[in-house]
Design brief:
The structure holds 2 protein chains of 2 kinds. By secondary structure, chain A is mainly alpha-helical. Chain A has a single domain, classed as MetI-like fold, CATH 1.10.3720.10. In chain A, helix 5 runs antiparallel to helix 6 and helix 12 packs antiparallel against helix 13. The two termini of chain A are 35 Å apart. Chain B is of the alpha/beta class. Chain B has one domain: Rossmann fold (3-Layer(aba) Sandwich). In chain B, the strands form 2 sheets. An 8-stranded mixed sheet of chain B has the order 6-7-8-3-9-10-12-11, with helices on both faces. In chain B, strands 2-1-4-5 form a 4-stranded antiparallel sheet. In chain B, helix 3 crosses helix 4, helix 3 runs parallel beside helix 5 and helix 5 packs parallel to helix 6. The longest helix of chain B has 18 residues. Chain B is globular and about 70 Å long. The chains are: A mainly alpha, B alpha/beta. At the A-B interface, helix 9 and helix 10 of A face helix 2, strand 6, helix 3 and helix 5 of B.
């Protein structure tokens, strides 16, 4: 990284190119060994692209009501139909994906990230700290994620950031437990003792000798948990505890449709379809990554 | 490659100067407990029990014993990689066992360790240069990037590797080369004392000789003191000035290497030596082997009196009750046996 910062613009370009080529090569290997997972990884890529480029991808303004065409079924102008205010469903799904994916990514990186750090420290240090940490995490895990998130939303109030914090909180224990187990096994490696033998302080042993070994399981955890986070966000949105309207999210779109006297099928089907695709994509891509990064475990993550 | 025989004769007992490393009554007991949370300690495994010995500057002390005798635990406890239960370790006149963790970390610059497993002891995600340079970074032993690279290169060349190998990862090296990297890491802080925990037992015989020659050259160049832990007696004989024998956590005999091989006193040492194959077939056939019966007893429940009495060919009734202490039987030659 240092060399990148110190070189001139041309070198930076070459570095980026090399990095991209290296990753393309890795992806080709991945695609050959786990074709299904690779396809879902591409789906994730498309969803992310759609969200990032939402202003370009959306054909209409997602917030602009059009009372001349309220609850119109799918047609050439509104591919997925319109809702009760005549807003275009395609545009709302594109913008909704932006919110849902953003919340999913940020909450998981926050929750799994902090959880992993906690688990790594807890596993490496052991002793009383580990014992107490484990009991706290067990209490957290005993409460179902959705209920925990609902509780936190009640306490914190509804906004994008409180939603992110609430979902992150439910992910904490999952990150901590998996990474703790990795940390426990790495702690016993001879090179960890070797690092101690040359006088490395504890933080250094953890940062340079334990943390790098947890990267692969961390990546798998993040990928699979984003799917779950999107589902929690959608569930909260569905019951009206998510982000306040008019900001669209997939879950709140479903909720609005279901709360109406007559739920029109296109208002239920399309947001539901996108939630399903996103959750499936993250889960299956995560499973594939798990298989490739750790050939010993052939199982799936819960 | 042959193993060099040239080595200054060190007569055991000829001290006068204070030893570089002085271990007094070191004990490492592991508690055995039942249950995970509210477990009661039901007993102790006495991995190292009341061991005292010293190592002089520039000297190699060989430490031998069969599996489970506590020799590796002893090596770790001396460097406080394992906290000793009791006893004292003095290094260069300073008591290591009373230092705080932070002070101990600073002292580690002068203490090295080479591990048995050349594969497990190097972090697979670090380059050879990164591994060797880590002690330099921890103890801030370089001035500037250029000096750092220079020192890492010098260390690589010191152990017989090329300085261009600094950017390679451990998996790109052979077992012998990896062990050289481990030696370079131990040397980076310019230590005076290195614990070698079976450094050659995972290597081919031909590579073993190379590494031993390297260690001897380095010892001569930097006046290093070694604690050489091994179970291969022929290797120990070649490198050691003095040899200590452990059995079930206890020291049973310590002496000048020559006396120990020519005139072993303790019955356990005699049995151990009789297991070494001799290159001369006539001699090998003529020699009487002492075969010990059974396995080493569990250190959780060691035999009473002399811990060796259950397998000792010379044991008498008193051995079951009297705990033998180390006594000087001949000048510089100590053993723990009441029958001597």
């Amino acid at each position: 990284m240092q060399s990148i910062l110190k070189t001139n613009g041309f070198d930076v370009l070459r570095h980026v190119q090399k990095l991209a080529m290296g990753n393309a090569q890795k992806f080709r290997v991945f695609a050959r060994r786990r074709t299904v997972a690779a396809i879902w990884l591409i789906v994730i890529g498309l969803l992310v692209l759609m969200s990032v480029a939402a202003p370009l991808a959306a054909p209409h303004d997602p917030y602009k009501p059009d009372f001349k065409k309220v609850t119109v079924g799918p047609n050439t102008d509104n591919l997925f139909g319109t809702d009760f205010l005549g807003r275009d469903q395609v545009s709302r799904i594109v913008y909704g994906g932006r919110t849902s994916l953003f919340i999913g990514f940020v909450s998981v990186f926050l929750g799994i990230g902090i959880g992993s750090l906690w688990g790594m420290v807890s596993g490496y240090l052991g002793g009383k700290f580990d014992l107490v940490s484990q009991r706290i995490l067990e209490i957290l895990m005993a409460i179902p994620g959705l209920i925990l998130a609902m509780l936190l939303m009640f306490i914190l109030g509804a906004s994008v950031w409180t939603l992110i914090v609430a979902i992150a909180f439910t992910r904490l224990a999952f990150g901590a437990r998996v990474i703790r187990a990795v940390s426990l096994s790495v702690r016993e490696m001879a090179y960890v003792e070797a690092a101690r033998s040359i006088g490395a302080p504890t933080w250094r042993v953890m940062a340079f000798h334990v943390a790098p070994q947890t990267f692969a399981p961390f990546l798998v955890l993040v990928t699979t948990n984003i799917g779950i986070a999107i589902l929690i966000e959608a569930s909260l949105g569905f019951i009206g505890l998510g982000i306040a309207p008019p900001t669209p999210t997939w879950g709140s779109m479903l909720g609005e449709a279901a709360s109406n006297l007559e739920p029109f099928w296109w208002l239920v089907f399309f947001p539901g379809l996108f939630i399903t695709i996103a959750v499936l994509a993250f889960n299956l891509a995560g499973d594939g990554l798990q298989d490739v990064l750790d050939p010993r475990s052939r199982g799936t993550l819960g | 490659m042959t193993i060099k025989e040239s080595r200054p004769e060190v007569t055991a007992g000829a001290t006068g100067t204070t030893p570089l490393l002085d271990v007094r009554n070191l004990k490492v007991h592991f508690p055995v407990s039942t249950g995970a949370l509210f477990g009661r300690t039901t007993g102790y495994i006495k991995a190292v029990d009341d061991v005292s010995l010293s190592v002089k500057s520039g000297e190699t002390l060989g430490l031998v014993g069969e599996s489970g005798s506590g020799k590796t635990t002893f090596g770790r406890a001396v460097l406080r990689l394992l906290e000793p239960t009791a006893g004292q370790v003095f290094f260069d006149g300073e008591e290591l066992t009373s230092l705080s963790n932070k002070e101990m970390r600073q002292r580690r610059r002068h203490l090295g360790m080479v591990f048995q497993d050349p594969y497990g002891s190097l972090n697979p995600r670090m380059t050879a240069g990164g591994i060797i340079g880590e002690p330099l970074k921890i103890h801030k032993l370089f001035s500037g990037k250029e000096d750092y690279r220079q020192q890492v290169g010098d260390l690589l060349e010191l152990v017989g590797l090329s300085r261009t190998m600094a950017d390679r990862y451990p998996h790109e090296f052979s077992g012998g080369q990896r062990q050289r990297i481990g030696v370079a890491r131990a040397l980076a802080g310019k230590p005076q004392f290195i614990v070698l925990d079976e450094p050659v037992s995972a290597l081919d015989v031909s590579i073993q000789a190379q590494l031993i020659n390297l260690l001897q050259d380095l010892q001569e160049e930097f006046n290093l003191a070694f604690l050489f832990i091994a179970h291969d007696l022929s290797v120990v004989r070649h490198i050691s000035d003095r040899i200590a024998v452990m059995y079930l956590g206890k020291l049973v005999e310590i002496s000048n290497y020559k006396d120990l091989y020519d005139n072993p006193l303790h019955p356990y040492t005699q049995a151990l030596l009789s297991a070494v194959p001799l290159p001369d077939r006539a001699l090998e056939r003529k020699r009487e082997r002492i075969i010990l019966k059974g396995d080493i007893p569990s250190p959780r429940n060691p035999p009473s009196g002399c811990v060796f009495h259950t397998r000792c060919p010379m044991a008498v009734e008193e051995c079951k009750t009297i705990v033998p202490t180390m006594r000087e039987i001949a000048p510089g030659h100590q053993a723990a046996c009441i029958r001597l």
